[in-house]
Amino acid sequence: MRVRRALVAVLVAVAAAASAQVAYKRAWPTLAADGLHDPASPALAILQEPSEALSALPPDFAGNLVNWMASLDGGYIKPRSTVLADTRVTLRSTDVLLKRTGELPLVVFPHRQHTAWLDCTNCHDQLFQQKAGGTMINMFLILQGEKCGVCHGAVAFPLTECARCHSVARGSDAEKTFRNLVRE
Ligand code: HEC
Ligand code: HEC
Ligand code: HEC
After folding, report:
1. Going by CA atoms, what residue is nearest to atom 42 of ligand 2?
2. HEC profile of the chain
3. What does the pLDDT look like over 151-180, one tens digit per residue?
4. What fold, for 80-183?
């Protein structure tokens, strides 16, 4: 219990630090300086710089500074959904309300946004049970890169964006009128 409480304190501190960035400029490191590409490689000249490619997309203020959901929903990008012609694409639109959040606002897990990018098997049943409330999930696991943390903080928006997951205030109308699946 003490570990949990300390964890929550650290999380809240991280969140405060993240939202304290007041004056914010959207800027990406160049390919030569990103620590990933070899600055001496002749191939750099033919690659597009992130600042050129990403600045055309809807902004975000965390992660790689692009709101990818808005990019997709707004038609700014049209990723190919399959590589092989016979792959069956399945979508789902239920939301699951996750309520084991201590004093924090409740978490909404939205299927529509996830299945727009991912296949069911990316999550089921290895990471999550196909049953609201069936899976043990908590912030400790997530921060260790498990459950939601397999992607968030790695390839999807970072864990410092608490409110994007913890989006429904306790006791609010949004909670009372939530029409999809609730896990107690
Ligand atoms: C990617 C989504 C996501 C983000 C981002 C996120 N959380 Fe969570 N959080 C969850 C989920 C899911 C649970 C578990 C809910 C459940 O099991 O019903 C949870 C649970 C919690 C809990 C309950 C206690 C515990 O240990 O599980 C606390 C406190 C918490 N989060 C704080 C935070 C804070 C503070 C931040 C920002 C620094 C944050 N969370 C960011 C998804 C997220
Ligand atoms: C990004 C991860 C992810 C993807 C992709 C995903 N799910 Fe889920 N799914 C979850 C989570 C998280 C829950 C809630 C689990 C819990 O509460 O223990 C859930 C719950 C469910 C449930 C029970 C609640 C409900 O909505 O009825 C079903 C059924 C389900 N998923 C089916 C699917 C199917 C079918 C697909 C593909 C079309 C899919 N899921 C894609 C993460 C995912
Ligand atoms: C297999 C990868 C994966 C897992 C696991 C995963 N997510 Fe996501 N999530 C994504 C991607 C990809 C996006 C879209 C890109 C982005 O917003 O960064 C996304 C977006 C979201 C969004 C934003 C929706 C919007 O409209 O902007 C929320 C909220 C979210 N995830 C919550 C969760 C929660 C809560 C969990 C765990 C219960 C979870 N995710 C697990 C990959 C994942």
Report:
1. 123
2. CHHHHHHHHHHHHHHHHHHCCCCCCCCCCCHHHCCCCCCCCHHHHHCCCHHHHHCCCCECCCCCCECHHHHHHCCCCCCCCCCCCCCCCCCCCCEEEECCCCCCCEEEEEHHHHHCCCCHHHCECCCECCCCCCCCCCHHHHHCCCHHHHCECCCECCCCCHHHHEEECCCCHHHHCCCCEEEC
3. 999 999 999 999 999 999 999 999 998 876
4. Cytochrome C3 (3.90.10)
